[in-house]
Amino acid sequence: MSKTPEAAGVLPDPNRWKALVFIALAQLMVVLDATIVNIALPSAQQDLGISDGNRQWVITAYALAFGGLLLFGGRIADLWGRKRTFTVGLLGFAAASALGGAATGEAMLLGSRALQGVFGALLAPAALSLLAVTFTEGRERAKAFGIYGAIAGGGGAVGLILGGLLTEYLDWRWTFYVNIPFAIVAAAGAYFVIREPAGGRNRSPLDLPGVVLSTLGLVALVYGFTRAESEGWTEAGTLGVFVASAVLLASFVAVESRVKHPLLPLRVMTERNRGGVYLSLGLAVIAMFGLFLFLTYYLQVVKGYSPLKTGFAFLPMVVGMITGSTQIGTRLMTRVPPRLLMGPGFLTAAVGMLLLTRLEIDTSYAGLILPAQLLLGLGMGTAFMPAMSLSTHGVQPRDAGVASAMVNTSQQVGGAIGTALLNTIAASATTAYLTAHAASATSPQAQRLVRLEAMVEGYTSAIWWAVGILVVAASIALTLVNTGRPDLAPRGTAKDGAPGDEVQVPVLAH
């Protein structure tokens, strides 16, 4: 039987905490980019003459490339080595960002966004799998994943603040240029500081049919939800894309169960703890992405906040996430089973979301929105930390990249679903309210009031759905995640799904 590094007498990497700084910096850059461009989009659209019909592609081009190529990126990390993939992803992301900042037209901007997605799909799973193989001791792993989980959860809100600052005081192009120093510093740190443990690569031949089927299937799925938002759920083209996605992904599963060296070994998904993490985290992100969208529009359109003020209005959520992840999650992860952090964490977030169903035009920020955000942040931060750690629970080192890619994929697909699904629900409720009340509004002032009331009615209707989705996420976490707390004393080996697969992980106390 193989031994863990500690049991074999191999000391932990003395630079592991320095390495965490650069891994976290890279993750922050990727997460920031998911929201920072949203704030700058109106300015970029006007500057480059992008039509209203095409502006969504500034967001969608990135989402399609990133979501579609994540599994491939995770497998490349296992094949090339995580440090090399991490560095290539960083430098490629910086180059694509420079291209976007220098864009002279629509095609150049959209192309740069797609390139960012491609290199992001290399970078994100490499970062998480580096973290998984660098920190193996229980308490240290809890602390490292607490920091990483706080960044993964709160980075999107930080992106709104930074996007507002850059757009208001500099220029929209700086929302792209700001990635370059992030990437260069993280790449230099990776080169000089990060040491990837030996023997963790998977040098099996690349599963090309799996690459093609998974990439096309995930691209079709993300595009289907994006198209549903603009064209409708029952439109023939939308239904066709969803059918194609289902066929492609079903074919992918069939191929992976038969090939000798699969792109995604099915044991990575079918182990109940990891499966529970991927499913519950994907659902939670549906609720979170919907909230970012509605709260941003509520604060700017209904309350009249500037982009910068809107960004700062999200600070309580960021504070809550950092506190929940680094203070609650990290301190309790080594004392209680992960499900007792994930389940209550998602339920706490659901309570915060429930408060936001009481939104009205004149709702007090300090009286309702601030405490709701604190609860959301605390709950999600507490749940994200053990979820991130468990996403690579029990995997062989050679599968760490693709297991890390799965948690990123669940978040990316969840984000696409959340934006489309909840936005559609909100739009339907807004239309229904306008139909019922428009006739009674005769003056321009009354008409404006009805429009604002209709928007808020749409937001609260969708937020009710988000509450339900978070409750389902909590139920899945409490039901499927059954591993015990990490045993911090003796360490040994555990078996993953397939016979004969030796895994270097802590022994789990049930």
TrEMBL record:
Sorted alphabetically, which keywords does the UniProt record give?
Answer: Antibiotic resistance, Cell membrane, Membrane, Transmembrane, Transmembrane helix, Transport
Q: Could you tell me the superkingdom of the organism this chain comes from?
A: Bacteria
Keyword Membrane in annotation: yes
- Major facilitator superfamily (MFS) profile domain boundaries: 19-485
| Record CDD domains | MFS_MMR_MDR_like
Q: Which residues cross the membrane?
A: 20-41, 56-74, 86-108, 114-133, 145-166, 172-194, 206-225, 237-255, 276-299, 311-328, 340-359, 365-388, 420-442, 462-481
How is this protein positioned relative to the membrane?
A: Multi-pass membrane protein
The cross-references to Pfam families, in alphabetical order and at most eight, read: MFS_1
PROSITE patterns per the record?
MFS, SUGAR_TRANSPORT_1
Matching Gene3D superfamilies, A to Z? MFS general substrate transporter like domains (1.20.1250.20), Multidrug resistance protein D (1.20.1720.10)
Keyword Membrane assigned to the entry: answer is yes
Q: Where in the cell is it found?
A: Cell membrane
User: Which PANTHER family does the record match to this protein?
Assistant: BLR6921 PROTEIN, MAJOR FACILITATOR SUPERFAMILY MULTIDRUG TRANSPORTER MFSC
Name the chain's protein: MFS transporter
State the taxonomy lineage. Answer: Bacteria, Bacillati, Actinomycetota, Actinomycetes, Kitasatosporales
